[in-house]
Amino acid sequence: MVQTEEEEMAIARARQQGFTPRRYGRDLAFWIPEHLELREIIERFDGIPLNSISRQPVRLEHIYMEVTST
Fold first, then answer.
1. pTM higher than 0.85, yes or no?
2. Which of 14, 17, 24, 52 lies deepest, with the highest CB count within 10 Å?
3. H or E element: which one contains 48?
């Protein structure tokens, strides 16, 4: 999950990196297609002010929201 005042900038950067942006309510998340250490993820957002960032596995509630949002 990512918290930033520059969400559009973070989303654009994530897409450049091959990350898939997702919104779960007010939470902004990026699905990352490879295993990266948190340090590596932070480096890929260099220059974008991040209030917080955390690495979390995909949970059942995320899958449910993906399936039911269409």
1. no
2. 14
3. none
**Three-class SS of residue 8?**
helix
Residue 55 near residue 49, CB atoms below 8 Å: no
Find all residues with CB under 8 Å of 21, minimum gap 6, and list them: 11, 14, 15, 28, 29, 30
Give the pLDDT of the chain (70 residues) as one tens digit per residue.
Answer: 899 999 999 999 999 999 999 888 788 999 998 899 999 999 999 999 999 999 887 778 767 777 887 5
Angle at 68 between CA 63 and CA 70, to 5 degrees: 115
